[in-house]
TrEMBL record:
<feature type="transmembrane region" description="Helical">
    <location>
        <begin position="7"/>
        <end position="25"/>
    </location>
</feature>
<feature type="transmembrane region" description="Helical">
    <location>
        <begin position="170"/>
        <end position="190"/>
    </location>
</feature>
<keyword id="KW-0472">Membrane</keyword>
<dbReference type="InterPro" id="IPR010291">
    <property type="entry name" value="Ion_channel_UNC-93"/>
</dbReference>
<dbReference type="Pfam" id="PF05978">
    <property type="entry name" value="UNC-93"/>
</dbReference>
<keyword id="KW-0812">Transmembrane</keyword>
<keyword id="KW-1133">Transmembrane helix</keyword>
<protein>
    <recommendedName>
        <fullName>UNC93-like protein MFSD11</fullName>
    </recommendedName>
</protein>
<dbReference type="InterPro" id="IPR051617">
    <property type="entry name" value="UNC-93-like_regulator"/>
</dbReference>
<feature type="transmembrane region" description="Helical">
    <location>
        <begin position="99"/>
        <end position="118"/>
    </location>
</feature>
<dbReference type="InterPro" id="IPR036259">
    <property type="entry name" value="MFS_trans_sf"/>
</dbReference>
<keyword id="KW-0325">Glycoprotein</keyword>
<dbReference type="GO" id="GO:0016020">
    <property type="term" value="C:membrane"/>
</dbReference>
<comment type="similarity">
    <text>Belongs to the unc-93 family.</text>
</comment>
<feature type="transmembrane region" description="Helical">
    <location>
        <begin position="386"/>
        <end position="404"/>
    </location>
</feature>
<feature type="transmembrane region" description="Helical">
    <location>
        <begin position="138"/>
        <end position="158"/>
    </location>
</feature>
<feature type="transmembrane region" description="Helical">
    <location>
        <begin position="276"/>
        <end position="297"/>
    </location>
</feature>
């Protein structure tokens, strides 16, 4: 197999592995609050929103050290160990205990930081200036199949159910744990590139070193990766992109946790309200996959760069927010176990709710494929620190959003996303224009990015 073929193979395996792990994890996140609401009459007193807030808070802080971890143990082993922790978190739901639930939330936050930093490093190492757009799209499309498969099962398994029994819960979470472990094992199929540099590594030095020297070099790599993360975080480009990244964190929380809870709380949807959570996840996944396919795989045919795709993303999201505001009761995110009988500005429509799910997924893919692409392009030599900063900002905003989701009515959550999304789009445009100017100065074809 040629070098280019090996790289594409690695990207596909990377995407498939993430697809399995996040089929389990995102389905878990989508149904967690609904499942927990049915558990709170027992000795279990956890909150899905609080758990996700802990996860993303720890995730954010852990991104400060994740480049160093990846530098020491390598991206492949980092992803394997992280995948095991994802599986353990999902397994907690088989027999929930409040202490285990929140403890697992802390550990998966650390694992998530290492996993995504290693993913960014693996994506960049297996790409170049001409393939980063394509590879970002391939990875994103494969990853987002995770929303489709898990939620398809939830839709059929929970159809007609108004209460989730202990047997229903155990069956779902045993299956999700196994799926997550399959994705973890697949990381072993990724082939190491001969020219791969660990994050924080310098250009080639002596290969044959004593054990003490090797340990010292690894520590130096770790320190260098940490210093690089701090340095990059204060660059103009990274600070501007951080506003865009902050928006992706807020809307990630909304579509992956809050919106499904809203749908499941609307009593006017009748006996379908719980199964509609799964159907909503399917439509989000369809939007994500379509966006990844069109805006990633076909990126080489774009003569206008990334800005039009990001503009489409924000317009699609604004339309979705507007329709959700009219369709969903204001108290839906914080409704009790009994649900809500309130009505918004129109009688709740299942069709409009599913359309909004599709639009949320499509808009999210617009932002994330282009952020992955521009980070890989701008920071090809410092991929691990750059992706760590990206996930740091995204996760801390997701943590904040999960925290206020316990208290804020729907209208205020939508307003926050509209404001941050507007400014995030403008800052992305600014960085993209500067990247295009730099590329033109080097005499490269702008359409190749």
């Amino acid at each position: 197999m040629s070098s280019e073929g090996k790289k594409l193979f690695n990207i596909i395996i990377l995407g498939v592995s993430f697809m399995f792990i996040f089929t389990a994890f995102q389905t878990c996140g989508n149904i967690a609050q609904t499942v927990i609401t049915n558990l709170n009459s027992t000795d279990f007193h956890g909150s899905g929103y609080t758990s996700m807030s802990i996860i993303y808070g720890v995730f954010s802080a852990s991104n400060l050290i994740s480049p160093s971890v990846v530098a020491i143990v390598g991206p492949q082993f980092s992803m394997v160990v992280s995948g095991i922790f994802y599986s353990l978190y999902i397994a907690v739901f088989i027999q929930p205990a409040t202490w285990a639930f929140y403890t697992a939330s802390v550990f998966i936050g650390i694992a998530a930081a290492v996993l995504w930093t290693a993913q960014g490093n693996c994506l960049t190492v297996n790409s170049d200036e001409n393939t980063i757009g394509r590879n970002s799209g391939v990875f994103w499309a494969l990853l987002q199949f995770s929303l489709f498969f898990g939620n398809l099962y939830i839709y059929f398994a929970w159809q007609g159910k108004t209460h989730i029994s202990e047997s229903d819960r155990r069956t779902v979470f045993i299956a999700l744990t196994v799926i997550s472990l399959v994705g973890t094992v697949l990381f072993f199929l990724i082939r190491k590139q001969e020219d791969t540099k660990a994050p924080g590594d310098e250009d080639s030095t002596n290969e044959i070193l004593g054990e003490s020297s090797s340990a010292r070099n690894k520590m130096m790599k770790a320190v260098a990766a940490f210093k690089k993360s701090i340095t990059l975080s204060f660059t103009k480009e990274m600070m501007l992109l951080s506003v865009t990244t902050a928006y992706t964190g807020l809307e990630l929380t909304f579509f992956s946790g809050v919106y499904g809870t809203c749908i499941g709380a609307v009593n006017r949807f009748g006996s379908e309200e719980k199964s509609l959570i799964g159907l909503s996840g399917i439509f989000i996944g369809v939007g994500e996959i379509l966006g990844g396919g069109i805006f990633g795989l076909l990126s080489k045919n774009s003569r206008f760069g990334r800005n039009p795709i990001v503009m489409l993303g924000i317009l699609v999201h604004f339309i979705a927010f507007y329709l959700i505001f009219f369709n969903m009761p204001n108290d839906a995110p914080i409704a009790p176990m009994e649900g809500t009988n309130q009505v918004a500005y129109m009688s709740p429509s299942k069709e409009v709710a599913m359309l909004c799910s599709f639009l949320l997924g499509l808009g999210d893919s617009c932002f994330n494929t282009q952020l992955l692409s521009i980070l890989g392009f701008l920071y090809s030599e410092d991929s691990a620190p750059a992706f760590a900063i990206f996930k740091f900002v995204q996760s801390i905003c997701a943590a904040v959003a999960y925290f206020y989701s316990n208290y804020f009515l729907l209208q205020w959550q939508l307003l926050i996303m509209v404001i941050v999304g507007f400014f995030g789009t403008i800052t992305f445009f600014t960085v993209e224009w500067e990247a295009a100017a730099a590329l033109a100065a080097r005499g490269s074809d702008y359409s190749s990015i």
